[in-house]
Design brief:
mainly beta
Length: 191
């Protein structure tokens, strides 16, 4: 029998790290998501995460991804916005990227009357014209419609009324952004 020595060279080949986690998130404006990222390395190396391409409301600290969309993330009239976050996984030798999709749904904030005139209760003389005015705002920047005393909606924040009939009268305005309402009611005496 013949013995022959053969030298075999084995190159140490690093296998890249792998992402083991959620590939998509859904949330609403104003609602935070905190997620512990998971990855593994086939060679047993430690995996370090980084945020390669993110959004202003996505933060990564150690292995914790926090997504905090504020109430201006989805611009009106859109109902939802879809984005992608790119994570980096590094095992000390190889770096790989993983895309995570993110869907944020719009949350309507209520329209609000911040001030109004005149005061809610007052006395007025017959024949006088009274100016009713409200200052309303929509924190989402939407259009506001004013419904003066149950009439058709318009974009006027004031209304003039000639006081003809004597007695106790009521007058109301509703303001709306199409999804929420606020109102003021006046009660006054015409003499």
């Amino acid at each position: 029998s013949v013995n022959k020595e053969i030298k075999v060279g084995v190159n140490n080949v690093n296998r890249p790290p792998k992402y083991k986690g959620v590939n998509s998130f859904s949330t609403k404006e104003g609602k935070n998501i905190t997620y512990s990222l998971r990855g593994y390395d086939p060679d047993g190396d430690n995996v370090i995460f980084s945020l390669v391409e993110g959004l202003g409301y996505a933060k990564l600290v150690n292995e914790t991804l926090t997504i905090s969309p504020d109430f201006d993330t989805v611009k009106s009239p859109e109902r939802e916005v879809d984005n992608v976050i790119t994570l980096g996984l590094w095992d000390g030798k190889d770096n790989v990227e993983q895309n995570i999709s993110l869907s944020v749904t719009n949350v309507n904030r209520n329209v609000k009357i911040s001030s109004f005139e005149p005061e809610p209760k007052f006395i007025v003389n017959r024949g006088e014209v009274v100016k009713f005015k409200v200052n309303a705002f929509d924190p989402d920047g939407g259009n506001i419609t004013y419904y003066w005393n149950g009439g058709d909606g318009n974009d006027k924040d004031d209304h003039y009324r000639n006081m003809v009939k004597p007695g106790v009268r009521k007058f109301k305005v509703l303001v709306s952004d199409g999804e929420s309402w606020d109102s003021v009611e006046w009660s006054f005496l015409v003499r």
